[in-house]
Amino acid sequence: MSTSPYLELLAPAKTAAIGREAILHGADAVYIGGPAFGARDKAGNALRDIAELVSFAHRFRAKIFVTLNTILHDAELEAARQMVWDCYQAGVDALIVQDMGLLELDLPPIDLHASTQCDIRTPKKAKFLAQVGFSQLVLARELTVKEIAAVRKVVPEDTVLEHFIHGALCVAYSGQCNISHAQTGRSANRGDCSQACRLPYTLQDKQGRVVAYQKHLLSVKDNNQSENLRALIAAGVRSFKIEGRYKDAPYVKNITGYYRQLLDEILTEQPELHAASSGKTQLLFTPNPDKTFHRGATDYFTNGRKADIGAFDSPSFVGLPLGYVTKIGDDWFEIDTAETMANGDGLNYTHQRVVRGIRANRAEKVGKCWRVWSNDPLNTLVGLRVGLEINRNSDHAWELLLTRKSSERRIGVSAHFAEIPDGFALTLTDEDGYRASAQWTGDQQPAQQPDTAVEQLRQQLDRFGTSEFSLRGDLTVDWSQPYHIPSSALNKLRRDALTALEAVRAAAYTRVPRKAEVQPPPTYPEVNLSFLANVYNTAARDFYAQHGVKLIESAFESHKTKGEVSLMVTRHCIRFSLSLCPKQAKGVQGVQGTVRADPMTLVSGKDELRLEFDCRACEMHVIGTIRPNILKSPSPSVVPLTFHPNKGGKGKSSKQVEH
């Protein structure tokens, strides 16, 4: 019940079961997809499962946010409105949304968060969204610490700034990529990205000369802000978000536990801050972010532009260096490594710029080395040789550990045990200040061993079993003399007091209501909106018109945009990463003035994408056209069906059929 500023660790959940694990491993809040309309269309969940997760989370004062962050067709608005009401009735704390059309609907007073898909990268945009009723803003991943601080200065004090601190990065500003829809008809803004950014491309200059051959030039490393948490806090970030609604439970356990420990260190250093939820997490393993999938680590633009943010060689997970091949037999090879290996380990090596995987069918210690029998015949492992470096991207023993119970989370309570006229009373007070009591009526018999009576009382009262509580505070005893209390009486007192405390906490829990829009309605920072504003329904069009926008183009998915357009806007600059930026050449003798930011071309098969460089904004635009077969097909309109709130799985299966 503290009113001091809080820090929120926000974890992803593909399923409600993973959401429970996130909370047990230290998350203050969890974001999860509902039955439909989430930006990860294969990570939907039935509302009955979400309701159960909500009930579990609220025990720890943790929150549940549901993602409703796709753009909506007119025919989907009513189904989306119904889903919002069902989420509210299920106890969901907030919705993460992109489509401004939702704000024009008859919604319950549920808290609204502006998704990163809203492309929040300027103070003016952030201020506007805060003024129209968003309490939490998910900032663009590309912002520097200085730019985050500038946003903090202009938004209301009660507006929470949320920022991604770990996981996969979209190379484009979120919401500013239409490559997937242009090439496949699958819309990233509709939750169905084909991830064209992870493909290999050949880069050609203006004259058609090859600059880079078959490199993953639009693929960037994964986000890791573990070294920047204090700077982000100083800049005004209060919600720290982990990416990964497609990730499995071991990833969520590991990464959530890792950042829980880091944030707890900061909370100890800065007592003016507190955690956004209750309880302390005890991990039964040592977190290590390098043990789970990543494409290398980058802090992206947090501390300014860097040249090494790309994962150009491979978009796959190569893991950690394990050792070197020392000997090769007929059906085995040996690795010199100080690590312990296990049957089932996943290994890999790089040969001719290609990452090649090996599954260790069997691994045995032989002297100082480990002998490995691969699942594949050795003659198929091209490039395997003595002296080759081997990485491990799947530590079977470590991953097996995370399939078991790997954490405990308990809310600390103090206890007051008192003598009453006809028995005894037990009062529990938890770390949040909530209090509940229970009484037992019976004979008061003097203790036969008075010197140990209080300690025996503590041992009996400290048996909280599988509940979320533990006796961490003081046990005070108020009696006229030491008594002997039957174990059955103490057990009943403890159970009854815990039940009463749980009821008090549940009754006291209140959700943050939706913020009201300021009056008079604020004016949107821009007068004209291009297709990149992703306006896909009449309600969104009405919203922007009411806030001063004069010209509103339809979203790319409407198929009204013709010819070459900017299919992607990104802060990542291939020229800079390849040391071909004119700004890098400044001051270099014999080079200055000879390097120009001429357009370049990315080639993948028959697809060509032109790169144009806006050096003033320090941004790159990927230019292309929508394929004729997609342009000729009907735009993704939707036939509204009966809404089944308890049907999980893919959003489209539960709400709509595209045609």
Give start-end ranges of low-pLDDT stretches. 637-644, 647-659
Biggest sheet strand order reads 1-2-3-4-5-6-7-11
Q: Beta-strand percentage?
A: 25-35%
Distance separating the two termini: 50 Å
Radius of gyration, taken over Cα atoms and rounded to an integer in Å:
29 Å
Describe, in short, the structure shown:
It is built from 16 helices and 34 strands. By secondary structure, the chain is an alpha/beta fold. Among the domains are: 318-401, Beta Barrel (Thrombin, subunit H); 408-431 and 433-508, no CATH class.
Characterization of this structure:
- The protein is 23% helix and 28% strand.
- Among the domains are: 318-401, Beta Barrel (Thrombin, subunit H); 408-431 and 433-508, no CATH class.
- The two termini are 50 Å apart.
- It contains 16 helices and 34 strands.
- 43% of the residues are buried.
- Mean pLDDT is 92; it is low at 637-644 and 647-659.
- The protein has 659 residues and is an alpha/beta fold.
- It is globular.
Summary keywords:
globular, 6-stranded antiparallel beta sheet, Thrombin, subunit H, 659 residues
Task: Please outline the helices and strands.
Layout: E1 6-13, H1 16-24, E2 29-33, H2 47-59, E3 63-68, H3 77-89, E4 94-97, E5 111-114, H4 123-131, E6 136-138, H5 145-154, E7 160-167, H6 179-184, E8 201-204, E9 210-215, E10 222-224, H7 229-235, E11 237-242, H8 249-269, E12 274-275, E13 280-283, E14 297-298, E15 320-328, E16 333-336, E17 346-351, E18 354-366, E19 369-374, E20 389-394, H9 396-401, E21 407-420, E22 423-430, E23 435-441, E24 445-446, H10 453-461, E25 469-478, E26 483-484, H11 487-508, E27 528-529, H12 538-546, E28 551-552, E29 565-570, H13 574-577, H14 582-585, E30 600-604, E31 607-614, E32 619-624, H15 628-632, E33 638-640, H16 651-655, E34 656-658
Parallel strand pairs: 1-2, 1-11, 1-12, 2-3, 3-4, 4-5, 5-6, 6-7, 7-11, 10-14, 21-25, 27-28
Antiparallel strand pairs: 7-10, 8-9, 8-30, 13-21, 15-16, 15-20, 16-19, 17-18, 17-20, 18-19, 21-22, 22-23, 24-26, 29-32, 30-31, 31-32, 33-34
Helix pairs in contact: 1-2, 1-8, 4-5, 5-7
